[in-house]
Write the structure tokens for this entry.
Amino acid sequence: QDGHGDLATAKAAARTGVPMVASTLTVDPMEDVAAEFGDTPGFFQLYTPTDRDLAASLVERAERAGFKGIVVTL
């Protein structure tokens, strides 16, 4: 209800140990979502843009944020 469902889901993933996949279209910054995972693995779902530089930037941000893998959606 507060518009931060991705953060709440990441916190729940951390509490339960169930991995989460965060969408490219998340409202909250991916870095904030990843910070809530704790020891639970989080994955970043990349909706592949046509702009290769944008795609590379998103992947690099996800890596720096600590996501454990990339789920590619074509």
Observations:
- The radius of gyration is 12 Å.
- Helices lie at 5-16, 30-35, 52-65.
